[in-house]
Amino acid sequence: MKTLLFNAKAMGLLLAGRVVTPAMIREDYDRLSAGYDEAFGRHMRKHALELTERLRLRPGDRALDLASGTGNVALALAAAVGPTGSVTGTDSSAGMLARAETRRRDYGNDWLRFREADMRQALLAQPDASLDVATCGWAIGYESPPSILRLMARKLKPGGRVGLIENARDTLAPIRDASLTVARAYPGQVRRIMDLHRRLPRNVRQMGRWCQAAGLTVLDVWEGSEEFRFGSGAEALAWVLRTGAGAGFWRMMDPARKSECDALFARYLDERFADEAAIPAAHHWLACVARKEGAPCI
Questions:
Q1: Which of 51, 70, 156, 246 could form a disulfide bond with 292, CB atoms 3.0-4.6 angstroms apart?
Q2: How is 206-222 classified by DSSP, letter by letter?
Q3: Domains held by the chain: number
Q4: Does 274 score more than 60 pLDDT?
Q5: Which pTM value belongs to this model?
């Protein structure tokens, strides 16, 4: 019965536009920015480097990185284009950008700059056909992916490339299941709906279709995962609250019931994996590189 009530409530909230807003998600990333690299960013750094290698950047290229977070992709782009190039990293979270700027100063990349802007604002600020490369790591689902990709394509020079990494729809399945268990247990306390999940790609084929619909030619697609393991439900909850995995979710619920929600989340995981040595959660991601056709500008 509670599941039916939750489904009805969720549909009503969605139709009424009562969703977790970008401003709420930005506030959550501001809050967790201090510990983000330790809990999550450092694990994903190698994948930012792989994306940059597959983009085959050239010295002197001009690049834009959307939703830079603490700077993994932007720093990798800057290393590839060198001092004759330029990289602009953007994010809507001032807290995440502050961490990115600290890292930029440590690396000494004067040709990299960070600007506070959401993805759409950052793209609209660029002249059409002005970029050699545009990237977005683990964030395009916060907007409409097809719409953002069309804008990225418009801002690329002929021959320019898009690099994209995003969470797969099945990522961190036990964490998602625990979160849904909480929401279904307290349907009357659900105040907003988190609609990110339905914008995530199911597989690399869907990601490729997004690029093709934006007029881009897909050059490369791949996928991977990072396995996180937790000793208890409480440990998993603490990790969620320190990473983007929980950004926006707890805004769904009445904050007065947070302690009960937290306890149920941890208990669900403890019970589900009672016979296991640890609680596993695979962060499954998808990636692609695509090109805007036409002769490169010389």
A1: 156
A2: HHHHHHHHTTEEEEEEE
A3: 1
A4: yes
A5: 0.92
